[in-house]
Design a protein that fits this description.
Largest sheet: 5 strands, mixed
Shape: globular
Helix content: 25-40%
Number of strands: 8
Radius of gyration: 14 Å
Number of domains: 1
Length: about 150
Amino acid sequence: MTEGPIKTRRDGHVLEVTLDRPKANAIDLATSRIMGDTFATFRDDPELRVCIVTGAGEKFFCPGWDLKAAAAGDEVDGDYGVGGFGGLQELRGLNKPVIAAVNGICCGGGLELALSADIILAADHASFALPEIRSGTVADAATVKLPKRIPY
């Protein structure tokens, strides 16, 4: 198992990826780059067949962008790394299933991360939101992916 904000564990042909950034599992630029490298490694490893991504703890899956890191100087249009924000949204050539195990609050970029997975499994206490809508900003990936996942 790896250490740092992204913990990974191999169990046979399954890669478990856990976002572990207390208090809320928010994603800053450095974490996004690590996630991108992690998902690219999953894509390129012929022994791995499925990936499960989740958040540490039971309160938050991921609220998306780390606003404290942004206030401290992380650029909104900075280098997110391979696969774009969260490493999964723009990852090319991924032909293996990714499961998002949502175990708490999933909003903003966290919802975009979950929508980038092939399957979303939600705990009974999970909640989903796109707060960008209230501020008049565009939730990039969610604007495209959410309408495709929710029927009319």
